[in-house]
Write the structure tokens for this entry.
Amino acid sequence: MIYTTFAAFLFILSLSTLGPNRLRRQAYFPVLLTMFVFAAFRYKVGCDWSGYYYQYVAADYVARDLIAELNEPLWWIIVEWIKAGDLGYPALNIISSAIFFAGVHVLARRQPDPLGFLVLLFPILVVNMPMSGIRQGAAIGLICIAFAAFMDRRPIRFAALVLLAGGLHTSALVFMVLVPLATGTYSKGRLLVAAGLAIPGLLFLAGGYSTGLAIARYIGTGIDAFGAVFRVGVILVSGVYFFVFLNKKWSEKYPQDHSLVNMGGIAMIFAIFLLPLSSVVADRFAYYLIPIQAMIFARVPFFAFKLSKWLHVILPYVALMTMFVGWTLASPLFEQCYLPYDTWLFGTPKGSILKEELFL
């Protein structure tokens, strides 16, 4: 299968070239470009392909109303712009993927190992977001840039980027609670302020149309996100691992981004408590934390361990690959949404009735 083969190739490439070397540096941009092309130029691949196509078709009729209500206006502006330019529905996937990978690149270049960071994103985040949930995927890209602003202690820039991400997917606005901590002053007092802001912040989100719709659809309805318990569980384990093995080491070696990863670790542990409320809500929140998870595991080779350092380095790759293979083999939804993989780069894929079908 193309997905597991590509993931295995990326993991082997990353593990076999560990350490500062020319091949690792040279591989980063080809891997980034390949992932972008793989996600952006797919054809009828992804669980939300039809859903976003309907948004594209309906943009002429509903976009202005939604923009007037300030409900995810940036997203609808993009959709309306594509329609006005007669660019065709596939352009929506290209633009959303470009935003996602541009954000990933901004955060990756802050890492001592950009390739490892990028590779660790593929099995869960890349396949699920820019290849399916493209609106949240684009929002995650902007949140990655916001994380970089957080590391730079630029709260105004951080807040502006979070607001822009919220214009794509309302769920991103939850990160506004971190604004008091983006100044670089990481204290109990500021943590309390952030916690205090979380309550009205969540109430504000609940008042939005999309969040209200999500609550109506997902909370207390019995609708579940298939695999959410595994994805949120991996996030939980990642947070616990950080606090048990890396927290103190990180604060000493990488103080500039310790507060971000520390807050991310707390959020990873907190996400598990959202599962009883709604697996869908927990799953969506967890996706925003995967870049921080990738930061944690890509940074492991740069720390000293008393025993079995190789085990610390290799286990994240083994765990993610095992989870990914299990998902691709056991999930009927994966087969329905992602198989077969087709692309329109080389013409209309086999099975299309009309060549023009691509640009309906």
Observations:
- The chain is about 70% helix and 0% strand.
- Residues 2-359 form one domain.
- The chain has a mean pLDDT of 85.
